[in-house]
């Protein structure tokens, strides 16, 4: 199935949903017997596992967007009633899963979806997909740029737990504009200001190739900036080698100055990563 957007032609790729269900899945309950799972946290943990696996495989970790995660949560709930890449419908006009994505907010050109049910933990669900070649290929697709995840539970449903992942790719010109913080692109698609990089590098033994290569992929780019910002906000952990790589101006501390200097280098405003704090400060002040 193909559909056309204003910017590019969509190429929709769906993967056959795993119908494997757990026979004896336990369900977390509170002391009062009511179920209170943190679906958002479970979705984040699932995305961490995906990005950890991608980094282990030498691939870039994927960014996520709050709106896209909300869409995945809708799809997880829908899969309770219809476990399919087709959305539930009251008539015969079933829609593909991708219609949950608002084209005006996210101008995607390629989207894929993974579904799973029955397992009651993030790790078990991830392994369920990992053991399926088609689902694993979706998670390891090097052409993807963003992902999202959703989790739903219904004790009265056939399988209890339902899990969903989406992966999308944008048109090249729009993606490049977002990466370069192009004012026109960001004004047209402001939702991409709210992006997130969800993965835990501390346990991956990442070894940066050079100063500024914080995620260890051998390239100094916007992914390193995002990771460094999240570290400074207390949202990610870095190992010793990564912290050393993040100390761009080599002043013995990782601060917002390192973020700004790294961003300037990526945007081509400086020819190379300077290592002297005095040079860095003079360069920053020269912009003001």
Overview of this protein structure:
The protein has ten helices and six strands, in the order βαβαβααββααβαααα. It is α+β, with helices and mostly antiparallel strands. A hairpin with a 7-residue loop joins strand 4 and strand 5. The protein is elongated. The relative contact order is 0.14.
Biggest sheet overview: 4 strands, mixed
End-to-end Cα distance: 51 Å
Give the overall pLDDT as a whole number: 80
Query: How many DSSP H or I helices?
Result: 10
Basic shape:
elongated
Number of strands: 6
Category by helix and strand content: alpha+beta
- Strand arrangement within the widest β-sheet reads 1-3-5-4
As a whole number of angstroms, the C-alpha radius of gyration is 21 Å
Order of helices and strands: EHEHEHHEEHHEHHHH
Bin the strand percentage.
5-15%
User: Which spans have pLDDT < 50 for at least 5 consecutive residues?
Assistant: 1-35
Helix content: 25-40%
Can you tag this structure with a few keywords?
10 helices, 36% helix, alpha+beta, 288 residues, 6 strands, single chain, two-stranded antiparallel sheet, four-stranded mixed sheet
